[in-house]
């Protein structure tokens, strides 16, 4: 993408050295002389966001301007979260153009001031390319950039912070203050408490020390108070303790004991639900806890030997414990309450680029950023699905060349941001400017793998994920070395040069040793190999501008901003998704990646249509018509009938970890039935596979969760009530008149011939069906005759035709196969054919289209235009459950699904407002996620944190 025009320059101050002529910027997407804004259609939208708990409007801004291809959810979140200025005032931002300009122009200005560009023309190309990529949702910066850059307030760009605390009251009180200031700004922080002496050691005055666990109480209360005051997101924090700390057992048990307290208080009648009046009495709930284990400990676990706990002041062993027993207690605690997680100290520091400046002792709250104490990291994530190409022959490829160019562009921008950024404390500012830690990553990996026909838990899926991650980090460090030639290496590079180059060689070696699988990942591996060769060559010559380049963050809010189907490194949550519509409506759709995956796997359009219809009705692929059982795994998700195993998640993390500077934000979900032994296995295998950190969550392990509201309702229903008079309503049969209009159709299914006569009421509406098979007297003919009578009676008693269609289409039995009907080329059975034909003849377009049934003319239109709809006035065919009146909305792709249902069609069923709630309804479960503080909807996991799909609020980094 770019090249430098002179050799390396010395120094890496915030203002940068201007000894070089700067970077030459190459165009990726833009056209000379045309601004990216002029190449898209813009639309005016009204953003009205309500609180689902009470229906009150918690945000409203009308007439905002966005590209017409942006979804309602993305528009809502960006408008409510990122637009600056008081709502209703002239200074309020009202267009995506204003938001992007505010950020991009600041980056360009700082880049020019600090000597990054060879000429003003290069600076303009940089600005236009950055604007294009943001406009088209190719990537996004983390939230603090959108909050702060280009405003009058401090321009904080980092989302991730690591603090430090020493064994003194002054340091402990500084910790409380620094953490509080970070929480106040909406960010999170992590730190390691292992320098604080244990409760088994003496103070200089002779008394016993309090120990780190006692000081955790004060920090936890502070975090809870700041969360309550701000009410925009819970305080995000990570607390780490080394496994050789004498108080490690008490640390492991902190949350387990609190869960026992919750149960006791709940049974005594106190309100212990999340957000309940009495839950605040529970301690240690505002932090993620992790134990930092080393290789010595894990080998002791492996061999069943003793392990020494060391005093903090002398370093001497003051107690020996059974390593397996301590490891078992960690697993038991994680089984009981999801804490503590585990961090693998020696692995982390083996990949440390700056060990001469200090060890890596902690992480940010979501566990992806791991570097020096008192430092920060700004994040950006690429939308992987934007780089998937489909050629005219239907073949797919990952655009590795364009991906690498975008990585270079984004890394350049991220490094520029450190030049003008503000930081919450002086120490963090000094460390970050000296080491310039960056965290480029990606989102939509799960969607990309499914769209390319790869199972998430498969060798092919892991190979593609590893190749993309390797190319991303290799390209990032290549650009970092090029930047070092322009504006100098990072200040701490000279003393860490050997270690940094050693880690680069480790990445390169891992790239060379990785397994190649198929035509999709091989070209990406080749590009990554070339990038790592450039890294070694340029790094030897120039050094590096950044001590860290890449992480895999949760991508919560920014994932919604980019309209991603999946966050971070996560698989898809479920195959059927919840979608908001322009005008306030909502609908459920089958993921757009499902048809792409089926096409990649070689299924015909008619088969794709039938499989998608099955998924829309059942929420999974089990027994879907024509779908081979060996392809089921491609559609496995995080939740559902076929959920990905715990080790499937761990193996995917292991595929990406060798190619990341930092770590991966991810929680490994296990079912409620999982055993302590299974959690031990996950933690042990994480160490064996070279992960840096791991967290476990067992379904329903938390007591304080939003379940009791439903339980209370059920209990209330179960209470005896006064006897009431029961009025029984009976259906009335509406017989057809003597003369009735009808259609007779001859058909052939799999060689079996037959005739169907369908008679209607005079004022329209099917009321009677007669089926005659060619072989009179046969069992099949008799059964079909009886079946048609039963259906006819049901129709006359008011059973809707669409109910029969949804129940009997895709039913499989012989005879089945090819038909002589051009509109229904394949049938799974005679019953499947009959009801598809009846739907085409008697159901309106929007109803049967939502059921996934289309004529040959409509399918032809879809292939030509991407839509089944005959005109723009028809109903969107993506929907299977529409919760409000439909207004026009631009969609990029239309996918057949099942069943549009108007509000009046059912007596107020439970309504989903997010994908998490939709999955709950489909599976009949209740997720343990908290309710969003802003809008009241159920959040869902994103990495190690939680994300609200309703308003974009998160509980951690993004």
Automatic annotation (TrEMBL):
Residues 1-23, 862-895 are annotated as: Disordered. It comes from the Bacteria. Residues 740-840 form the TSCPD domain. Its EC number is 1.17.4.1. Residues 158-697 form the Ribonucleotide reductase large subunit C-terminal domain. Its cofactor is adenosylcob(III)alamin. InterPro entries: RdRp_reductase_class-2 (IPR050862), RNR_2_N (IPR013678), RNR_lg_C (IPR000788), RNR_NrdJ/NrdZ (IPR013344), TSCPD_dom (IPR024434). Pfam families: Ribonuc_red_2_N, Ribonuc_red_lgC, TSCPD. GO terms for biological process: DNA biosynthetic process. It catalyses: a 2'-deoxyribonucleoside 5'-diphosphate + [thioredoxin]-disulfide + H2O = a ribonucleoside 5'-diphosphate + [thioredoxin]-dithiol. Keywords: Cobalamin, Cobalt, Disulfide bond, DNA synthesis, Nucleotide-binding, Oxidoreductase. SUPFAM superfamilies: PFL-like glycyl radical enzymes. Residues 47-137 form the Ribonucleotide reductase class II vitamin B12-dependent N-terminal domain. The keyword Nucleotide-binding applies. Residues 884-895 have a biased composition (Polar residues). GO terms for molecular function: cobalamin binding; cobalt ion binding; nucleotide binding; ribonucleoside-diphosphate reductase activity, thioredoxin disulfide as acceptor. Belongs to the ribonucleoside diphosphate reductase class-2 family. Catalyzes the reduction of ribonucleotides to deoxyribonucleotides. May function to provide a pool of deoxyribonucleotide precursors for DNA repair during oxygen limitation and/or for immediate growth after restoration of oxygen. This is Vitamin B12-dependent ribonucleotide reductase.
């Amino acid at each position: 993408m770019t090249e430098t025009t002179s050799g390396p320059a010395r120094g890496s101050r915030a203002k940068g050295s201007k000894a070089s002529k700067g970077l030459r910027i190459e165009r990726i997407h833009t056209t000379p002389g045309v601004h990216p804004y002029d190449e898209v259609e813009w639309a005016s939208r009204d953003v009205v966001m309500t609180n689902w708990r009470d229906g009150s409007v918690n945000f409203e801004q009308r007439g905002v301007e966005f590209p017409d291809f942006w979804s309602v959810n993305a528009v809502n979140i960006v408008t409510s979260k990122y637009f600056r200025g008081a709502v209703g005032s002239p200074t309020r931002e009202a267009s995506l153009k204003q938001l992007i300009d505010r950020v991009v122009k600041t980056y360009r200005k700082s880049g020019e001031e600090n000597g990054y560009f060879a000429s003003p023309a290069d600076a303009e190309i940089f600005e236009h390319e950055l604007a294009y990529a943001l406009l088209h949702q190719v990537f996004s910066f983390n939230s603090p950039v959108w909050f702060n850059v280009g405003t009058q307030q401090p321009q904080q760009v980092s989302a991730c912070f690591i603090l430090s605390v020493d064994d003194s009251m002054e340091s402990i009180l500084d910790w409380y203050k620094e953490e509080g200031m970070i929480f106040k700004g909406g960010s999170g922080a992590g730190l390691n408490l292992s320098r604080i002496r244990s409760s088994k050691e003496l103070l200089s005055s002779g008394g016993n020390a309090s120990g780190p666990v006692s000081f955790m109480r004060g920090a936890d209360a502070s975090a809870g108070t700041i969360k309550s005051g701000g009410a925009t997101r819970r305080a995000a924090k990570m607390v780490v303790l080394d496994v050789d700390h004498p108080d490690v057992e008490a640390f492991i048990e902190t949350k387990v004991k609190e869960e026992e307290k919750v149960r006791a208080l709940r049974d005594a009648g106190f309100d212990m639900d999340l957000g309940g009046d009495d839950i605040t009495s529970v301690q240690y709930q505002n932090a993620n806890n992790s134990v930092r284990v080393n290789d010595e400990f894990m080998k002791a676990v492996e061999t069943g030997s003793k392990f020494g706990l060391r005093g903090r002041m002398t370093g001497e062993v003051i107690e020996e414990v059974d390593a397996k027993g301590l490891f078992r207690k960690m697993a038991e605690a994680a089984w009981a309450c999801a804490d503590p997680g585990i961090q693998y100290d020696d692995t982390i520091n083996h990949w440390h680029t700056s060990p001469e400046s200090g060890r890596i002792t902690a992480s940010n709250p979501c566990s992806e950023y791991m570097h020096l104490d008192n430092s920060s990291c700004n994040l950006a994530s690429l939308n992987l699905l934007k780089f998937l190409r489909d050629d005219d022959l239907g073949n797919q490829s990952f655009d590795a060349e364009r991906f690498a160019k975008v990585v270079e562009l984004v890394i350049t921008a991220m490094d520029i941001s450190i030049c003008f950024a503000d930081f919450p404390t002086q120490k963090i500012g000094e460390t970050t400017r000296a080491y310039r830690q960056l965290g480029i990553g990606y989102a939509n990996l799960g969607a990309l793998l499914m769209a390319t026909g790869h199972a998430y838990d498969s060798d092919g899926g892991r190979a593609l994920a590893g190749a993309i991650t390797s190319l991303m980090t290799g390209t990032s460090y290549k650009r970092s070395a090029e930047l070092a030639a322009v504006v100098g290496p990072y200040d701490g590079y000279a003393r860490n040069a050997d270690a940094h180059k050693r880690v680069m060689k480790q990445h390169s070696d891992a790239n060379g040793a990785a397994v190649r699988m198929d035509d999709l990942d091989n070209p990406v591996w080749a590009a990554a190999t070339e990038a790592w060769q450039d890294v070694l060559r340029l790094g030897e010559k120039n050094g590096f501008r950044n001590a860290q380049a890449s992480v895999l963050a949760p991508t919560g809010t920014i994932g919604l901003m980019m309209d991603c189907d999946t966050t971070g490194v996560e698989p898809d949550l479920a195959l059927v998704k919840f979608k908001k519509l322009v005008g306030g409506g909502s609908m459920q759709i089958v993921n757009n990646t499902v048809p792409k995956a089926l096409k990649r796997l070689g299924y015909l359009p008619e088969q794709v249509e039938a499989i998608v219809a099955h998924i829309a009705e059942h929420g999974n692929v089990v027994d879907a018509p024509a779908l081979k059982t060996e392809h089921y795994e491609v559609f496995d998700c995080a939740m559902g009938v076929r959920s990905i195993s715990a080790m499937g998640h761990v193996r995917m993390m292991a595929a990406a970890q060798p190619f990341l500077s930092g770590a991966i934000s991810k929680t490994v979900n296990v079912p409620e039935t999982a055993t302590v032994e299974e959690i031990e296995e996950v933690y042990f295998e994480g160490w064996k596979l070279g992960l840096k950190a791991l967290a476990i969550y067992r379904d329903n392990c938390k007591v304080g969760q939003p379940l009791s509201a439903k339980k209370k309702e059920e209990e209330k229903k179960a209470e005896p009530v006064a006897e009431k008079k029961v009025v029984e309503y009976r259906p009335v049969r509406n017989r057809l008149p003597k003369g009735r209009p009808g259609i007779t159709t001859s058909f052939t299914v799999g060689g079996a011939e037959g005739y169907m006569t369908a008679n209607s009421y005079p004022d329209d509406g099917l009321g009677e069906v007669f089926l005659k098979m060619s072989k009179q007297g046969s069992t099949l003919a008799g059964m079909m005759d009886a079946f048609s009578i039963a259906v006819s009676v049901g129709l006359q008693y008011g059973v809707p035709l669409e109910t029969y269609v949804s129940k009997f289409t895709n039913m499989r039995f012989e005879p089945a196969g090819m038909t002589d009907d051009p509109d229904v080329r394949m049938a799974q059975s005679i019953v499947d054919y009959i009801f598809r034909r009846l739907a085409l003849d008697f159901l309106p377009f929007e109803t049967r289209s939502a059921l996934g049934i289309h004529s040959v003319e409509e399918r032809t239109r879809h292939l030509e235009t991407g839509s089944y709809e005959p005109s723009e006035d028809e109903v969107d065919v993506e929907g299977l459950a529409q919760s409000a009146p439909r207004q026009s909305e631009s969609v990029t792709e239309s996918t057949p699904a099942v069943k549009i249902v108007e509000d009046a069609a059912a007596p107020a069923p439970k309504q989903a407002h997010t994908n998490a709630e939709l999955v709950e309804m489909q599976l009949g479960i209740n997720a343990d996620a908290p309710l969003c503080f802003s809008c009241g909807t159920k959040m869902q996991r994103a990495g190690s944190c939680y994300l609200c799909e309703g308003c974009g609020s998160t509980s951690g980094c993004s």
